[in-house]
Amino acid sequence: MGLQENFLWGGASAANQCEGGIFEDGRGLANVDVCPAGKDRGDVISGRRKMLSMDQEHTYPAAVAVDFYHHFREDIRLLGELGCRVYRMSIAWTRIFPQGDEEEPNEAGLEFYKEVFRECQKRNIRPLVTISHFDCPIGLIEKYGGWRNRKMIGFYLKLCKTLFTRYKEYVSDWLNFNEINMILHAPFMGAGICFEPGEDEEAVKYQAAHHELVAGALAVKMAHEINPKNRVGCMFAAGSAYPRTCSPEDVWEALLTDQENYFFVDVQARGYYPAYAVKRLKKRGIWPKMDPEDEAVLKSYTVDFISFSYYNSRCIAAPGSGSEEAEGNLFKSAKNPYLTFSEWGWPIDPLGLRITLNQVYDRYQKPLFIVENGLGAVDTPDENGEIHDSYRIEYLREHIRAMKAAVEEDGVELIGYTSWAPIDLISAGSGEMKKRYGFVYVDKQEDGSGTLARTKKQSFSWYQKVIESNGEDLG
Ligand code: BGP
Q1: CA separation for the pair 158, 244 (Å, rounded)
Q2: 65 in contact with ligand 1, CB cutoff 6 A
């Protein structure tokens, strides 16, 4: 019993939340660079306020982030010390193709990631690379409107081809899009979409989703052709929807919420639009425009595994039931009276991870990979500069316990677990620095000050033991 010996323990991050260095070595500007911190962020990431460049009034946390661009050797050494067997990271598209539609890639950008992969190799860490983690060149948004345009498929595949060929000897595990279902909730951040006044937003989102689904399938095809060892997974923001009560109306609403989420994985893992989506999109008059070959492409190139982020479950009440709201990973839902909540109001539900793992595995029967799970909290160093983050240990311990139960007692096939995020970084949802997830504290403060020095938190040695014991010693 226990987890398989080669279980992939590790940590996960995203280029735009840790790298900084956005003007270095020929890198171009991306959607994620121009998402400001503060009150306007919500309107920008949802595509309702068009912001395609930086202004003086706002601050842009991705510009420096935690400066992984200049600290990657130290950071990867720390990951090695933690015992990470895998590092999930992403590529900043605009380091490779600064505008997105160039003929030739930017060699300096390619060199940077090669160095990152070499460093991983030195420490026996296997990279798991997200090709697009909320990342779209501004050049492609200005000229083509982002993923609403079918031409994006070609630009994305060009990026894929460059990555698959250039990094053949370093990388064989890939994710095509981070949290693909976020296109419905944060379409500018997820897909570079800004809405025009009066247009049917749902129609635009599902058209863009279709382009990503086709692009993702063609990426699977290309990855397998270039290197038969390549494995490509999809990635979605998971968290089962619970009905607020056993009233059939609440149960029905919860089912609709799950279907909205699973839609993407249904296509990527099974290879076709599920019946409920066909009916509803057609009835709403927003069935996406497709090319004749799309159906065959989706059918032929399904993903090798399914990965997801899990932060919380959702609690769903029928419209008009007047129940209180709770926050969550870019989704709001009803407040679950049986759970406690993080400082950011996200529900804490470890058993929910076991439930989600079971539901996803029952539905697809493909290997699963938990590629994000963690607790965003304010960490305050004590007078000696130490951080006692027992709340984080508690959160992770209970989630890992639930994960192990899903594997050991329920038979779920699980490849690995990468916690979000081993080293503090910028929050995607809020743009804040003070919402920290790491085992390593970065001295970077909300106002941009700080030395960027890295310090291990209490949770560092705890996670080290977890990995060392392959999840047997949870402290
Ligand atoms: C997911 C993203 C990550 C990460 C995480 C935590 O949606 O894939 O990029 O940021 O959520 O969310 P937040 O940063 O909003 O706390």
Answers
A1: 45
A2: no
- By annotation, the residues acting in catalysis are 179, 372
Give the tens place of pLDDT for each residue, 81-104. 999 999 999 999 999 999 999 999
Tokens encoding 174: 């890939």
Report yes or no: 135 and 93 within 8 Å, Cβ to Cβ.
yes
Q: Provide the β-strand partners of residue 333.
A: 326
Helices 248-265 and 350-364, packing angle to 10 deg:
60
Distance (Å, rounded) from C-alpha 439 to C-alpha 442?
10
pLDDT tens by residue, 409-422? 999 999 999 999 99
| Cβ-contact 347, 375 below 8 angstroms | no
Return the DSSP state at 177: E
Mean pLDDT of 118-146: 98
CA dihedral 224, 226, 227, 230 (to 10 degrees): -50
Is residue 305 classed as helix, strand or coil in its secondary structure? strand
The preferred substitution site among 329, 341, 395, 436 for testing ligand 1, maximizing ligand atoms within 8 Å of CB, is 329
- Distance between first and last Cα of the chain: 19
Mean pLDDT of 378-383: 96
CB 237 less than 6 A from any atom of ligand 1: yes
- Rounded Cα distance between 165 and 38, Å, is 40
> Which residue is listed with tokens 């590629």?
371
**DSSP state, residue 462:** H
DSSP assignment of 232-277, as one string?
EEEEEE--PEEESSS-HHHHHHHHHHHHHHHHHHIIIIISS--HHH
- Do 116 and 399 touch, CB atoms closer than 8 A? no
pLDDT digits (tens, 9 = 90+) for 35-80: 999 999 999 999 999 999 999 999 999 999 999 999 999 999 999 9
Cα–ligand 1 centroid distance for 247 (angstroms) = 32
Average pLDDT, the chain: 96
